[in-house]
Fold this protein.
Amino acid sequence: MSYNPNEIEAKWQKIWDEEKAFEPDDALSRKKKYILSMFPFPSGRLHMGHVRNYAIGDAFARYYRKQDFNVLHPIGWDAFGMPAENAAIKHGRHPKEWTYSNIDYMRKELGALGLSFSKTREFATCDPLYTKWEQEFIIRMFEEGLLYRESTTVNWCESCHTVLANEQVEEGCCWRCDNPVELKEMPGYYLDIIKYADNLLGDLKQLEGKWPNQVLTMQENWIGKSQGLEFEFELSEDSKAKLGGNFEKYTVFTTRPDTIYGVTYSALAAEHPITKYLLDNDLLDADVAEKIVAIGNMTEIERAKEGKEGYDLGLTVIHPLTREEIPVWTANFVLASYGGGAVMAVPAHDERDFEFATKYDLPIKRVIAGGDDLPYTAEGSLENSEIFTGMPNKEAQKEIIALFEAKELGQGTTNYKLRNWGISRQRYWGAPIPFVHCDDCGLVAEKVENLPIALPDDVEITGEGNPLDKHPTWKHCSCPKCGKEAIRETDTLDTFVQSSWYQFRYATNPNKWNITGIDKEEANYWLSVDQYIGGIEHAILHLLYARFFTKVLRDLGYHDIDEPFENLLTQGMVLMDGAKMSKSKGNTVDPDALVEKYGADTARLFTLFAAPPAKELEWNDSAVEGAFRFLKKLYDRKAKVAGKTLPVIEQSKLSKESKIARVKIYEALQKSTDVYEKTFAFNTLIAACMEALNALDKQDNPEVWTEGMYIMLNLLEPIVPHVATELSEILFARENLGVQLEVKEEVFVQESILYMVMIGGKKRTEIEVNASASQEEILIMAKEAGAKWLEGTTVIKEIVVPNKLVNLAVKPN
RNA sequence: GCGGAUGUGGUGAAAUUGGUAUACACGCCAGACUUAGGAUCUGGUGCCUUACAGCGUGGAGGUUCGAGUCCUCUCAUCCGCACCA
């Protein structure tokens, strides 16, 4: 009978289902592996990126199950989010109905791929039982002062009608819809991720070698720690008067305190309170005011493109050390969001300050020696710096901070580029933020016993405004504290909040899901995730948030884990004609059609064979055919197998071809451990199996065939589970899938070895040498064989690399 | 500009970590079987050569008996961040 993947795959999927083959052991006593592929958003259909992601994860899970680990390999649905609301607007479907019906369809698609997921631990993040615990965490964070509400300038996406976190803005545009982001002043909820910045940065060290370097450096840069001096500029008396006595001083931050004597002006952001005061009180020329307002309305990206622009504010401050009066400007390159929105400017030693000073003809004072050209930003000794003159600048940085601290003028401090995580979204399809606004009590957390605060089903979704806010009754409630009439918060949580703790939810036994969010003992047993697999696009977003949440939940006592994901594999994209597959480009391959035509095993085999997992995968229809051909051949060779168990083979009686076949088989077995535990190069393991099958085909010993198939099916089971299990069932009653296979060293012992003979570094000839030959004997043979090339030369060095080659270094006579 | 990667046949890619470069697969060429084949099987396939030889891992140097692998410089491509004071 020929290979019929659809029949075989349906059969085994049913059996695995009935056997509950992939549920983890609740005993928590065995050694464990937690294998996790990033969960999908239920968009409607799987795409090839999903197939790749889950094929990789499934290979790990099945491999470790065979190694007798207790394996947790769960799947769920990242189910809240904009597209559900867009579907509601476009097709009039309720987000909940849309989401759950998509989940039902995609669950079937995953099933058809034969993925070994736990069925009992599946959930969707929009399940009320998930929301309930998430809201509890949020309230706990509020109680601990990690969550606060504040009105500030936010990133606003007009197309999504919602606020975005800094991490969700890519080159000034919305990460989801690519619409340019606007700045808007509005209230929102924030998680104090900056409080954990140092912890998040420091723990990256634990991940070195286990996470891709690229991801580690991206996170490091994103956190953006810098150390320096923070001090205050006192306004001159005239300036204080001009500002109506409302301001005395303002704070600036510098990483270059060594250049403090080179300060020739100070610059404020357009959003700085002093700038605003001047604008609000008409204290600037009308045309200047207009231009400053225009700057304030630009995004940071737009400002960067504009080039340096600024205006004299007509104010002066006092230099803290020299007591000189220094002019104050506003400048478009000063960021409101960093370092207090004000800087000291040292044009001689900073490129931006230099460019600005040159443009506006501001003084430039050199204070670091070195080089001829300004700005000079490298190391050097101080000059024009009073008592610090002559001191190396590195040393001066410390000394000057010490001086500021001694005189109580400022202090050494640390700044981060990382901004606090804005988690409120003005959308319906999300987890409600569990707070209430009370006229008397202010912002009050909902009582934990009232959780979950569920979404109302009867909403009208038009795309205009927040449906929760417009709902006639939902937001009206009583204050959890005083009982008076109050208004429920209508913002919902960023969907990245859900994906920040789902790894803990899977670890909690489903029979406890209604009594606890995270079971501490189970979390401590299962976490960290031993192997996490997902796309590089989450290098900052999800992976930073999930690390943050893990640390916060640890500190709140929910578990004792420091890092959620021990090992990270970032898979490459699936491409077609060199471009990312996308519906709009029309270059997609439909997984359903692929499975229908060739079967899931071919889809999985091709995906793992065509490229190493971290690299981009270029789709190739004929290579898919090639993968299918290999499986057909494998299936066909079942006729060659004679025994039902692993035979004992007498090596010495085998033909040369049979010996080679055994070597190839055992090489593949050796490779397997390496691939799953170190290199993740599934493509090379598959290649090794192909080589083994080719070598088996060149001989006809039934015992060698039996041994070969016995081992090879075991090795291939994680990759092509259906056909491997089917053949194992037919040939070996599946006995070969459960055993620990051992490498037989005698297979690699050779009676004679082929040595390459190199003369003068060039490959010249080969010699066949008895395995027991001594080094001297080998050299004599090599010289005989290479006599032709040794004529007229003297051998000056003889190298014998055991089992490989002889190299004779020569010089002409 | 800063940071991270990657450069190997016509293509996707290997190379036990310093030891016969191009395994495995796709494609291509030839042949077999066929009424036919976009099916299957067999053989061939880095470049230049009739052959011997020579040349070949982006480029230029270096270390070494020996370099795809180590060092220095350089070029190209991709990705991320981007006025962070």
Notes: Chain A has a mean pLDDT of 93. The first strand of chain A starts at residue 32 and ends at 37. The two ends of chain A are 70 Å apart (CA to CA). Chain A has five domains: 5-125+510-580, 135-192+421-496, 225-416, 641-747, 750-812.
